[in-house]
Amino acid sequence: MVLFVLAFLGGVLTILSPCILPILPFTFARSDQPFRKAGLPLLLSMAVTFAAVASIAVAGGSWLVRANQYGRIAALVIFALLGLSLLLPGLADRLTRPLVQLGSRLTQTASSGTRASVLQSLLLGFATGLLWAPCAGPILGLILTGAALQGASAHTSLLLLTYAAGAATSLAVALLAGGRIFAAMKRSLGAEEWIRRILGVAVLIGVIAVAFGLDRGILTRLSLASTSGVEQGLLDRFHPRVRIPAQTLTITDAGSTLTQASLLSSLSGATAWINSPPLTAEQLKGKVVLIDFWTYSCINCLRTLPYIRAWAEKYKDSGLVVIGVHTPEFPFEKDLSHVQKAVRDLGITYPVALDNDYAIWTAFNNEYWPAHYFIDSNGNVRYQHFGEGEYDQSEQWIQQLLKERDGQQPLPTGIVNVEARGAEAAPDMSDVQSPETYIGYERAQHFASPGGFKQDAAQTYTIPAQLALNEWALGGKWIDHDQTAVLQSAPGRIAFRFHARDLHLVLGPTADGKPVSFRVTIDGQAPGENHGMDTDEQGNGTVTEHRLYQLVRQKGAVRDRTFEIEFSAPKVQAFAFTFG
């Protein structure tokens, strides 16, 4: 119920977002009509259409995206005609005549005009729902991420409908207030004709904005009235991460433990195992178990691995079993051979369970990469930790649980001393001002190429002369998919204005595995001593496999810098930026 309330509030807040601007003319275009037969049907139809399309997209894949493109084109035509009809009253009569005739056929009473008006509003609401592309703030992001992980469901559809209902509610308030203002102006000024013309021009401007992708590009980046901070505050207060305080090392009775032993039975949902035959709850009985949810292209996961490896080695003879649960974020991470190679390259010797179907992730109700669950010898989760850091406290929990298991057995003492290198080295978080940024349009933010994304279709993009901090852009001919961008012809470029010591980019070679060389620059110059482990001083490197590539590691003072990478051959795949 809390999540439904948050979804509604998130929808209400969208009226303050710049992404709502293109559809405001569509909703205000019929403000001269009674709200009950014009505004209300339009908003209800818009909410239902948005929720239905977004819900189907979870399961529909690329075919729905293509179908929705045709729907958006049809909607733009409808609104273009609406805008012209507001400017040209004679055209309006001709356009509405079929609807009036339909209303007459439905009923011969005096209510036929009302029926026609309602049908018009429902049609316009349907078109608005196809065109509406709200900025994905934290609340909508939580809904869509949950839908992507758990698949389409009635719960997801209801959450999306609740979000859309919140948006419709705030628009209804604005529409009622605007309608009264327009009515007062018409009475006092006799200004009905020029108000109609202004609305017509506004509708046509809205059509142009949507047609050229401004609703998904420039307006998303403007954030002049961004609600992300308010949304995140609501999530932190009412939908917080559940965790046991790290400083609480006194173990209480079993009745207060977080989760019971049945969680270990979820390991049967693994699609494959590496470094071990399948492990069962029965085999793990009496052991202390550390479950590490990770994925090999996740920079935060990579930086925790030195500690996980060290604990597995230090306590392997004392009753600790470490299990890495590899739950993929990107499709290429489902490939068993890719994960096997990553496990070898990363020096992981403990058991790794592939969780391609998210069965183990779902059983643990997990939401994060990385996430660590510490399970005692009775099968109870006694402590959990999300993300990086607090390694000393985590190791103290391991020691405490091992002591409980066999208080007579001597344990290794002290805390591991880890000196990680390369991508596994700890970040300088005091100087990181750039967030993880996805290149696929599904979760992309701050995209700066003029015109925005053309989804799932080839498009020639340009990089602006100036990028603001955390803006990024594509250069050349690319196809941007929901999770990745694929270069169609060489050369192709990606630029990012960032502020961090390290810059990483998840990349993949061509579909047939052919390597692709690249060159990196920082502020237009070769990186020199600031090159990453996957580039040389001249910025040269090669994409040979699907993984995270460290492209920049600055040696001097950290400041705003412009990163650019240029690829020498087509079909290279780019997924996400991370920083440290």
Shape: globular
From the N-terminal CA to the C-terminal CA, the straight-line distance is 37 Å
What is the count of structural domains?
3
Query: Counting H and I runs of at least 4 residues, what is the number of helices?
Result: 15
Helix content: 40-55%
Main beta-sheet annotation: 11 strands, antiparallel
Beta-strand content: 15-25%
Q: Give the class from helix and strand content and strand pairing.
A: alpha+beta
The low-pLDDT segments are 60-65, 99-113, 215-226, 240-261
- Overall pLDDT metric: 76
Give the C-alpha Rg. Answer: 28 Å
How many strand segments?
17
Describe this structure in words.
- The protein is of the alpha+beta class and 580 residues long.
- The protein folds into three domains: 235 residues, no CATH class; 171 residues, 3-Layer(aba) Sandwich (Glutaredoxin); 151 residues, Galactose-binding domain-like (Jelly Rolls), CATH 2.60.120.260.
- Helices cover 41% and strands 16% of the residues.
- The chain has 15 helices and 17 strands.
- The strands form two sheets. Strands 7, 8, 9, 10, 11, 12, 13, 14, 15, 16 and 17 form an eleven-stranded antiparallel beta sheet that branches. A six-stranded mixed beta sheet has the order 1-4-3-2-5-6, covered by helices on one side.
- Strand 5 and strand 6 form a beta hairpin.
- The longest helix is centred in the first third of the chain and has 36 residues.
- The radius of gyration is 28 Å and the shape is globular.
- The two termini are 37 Å apart.
- About 9% of the residues have low confidence.
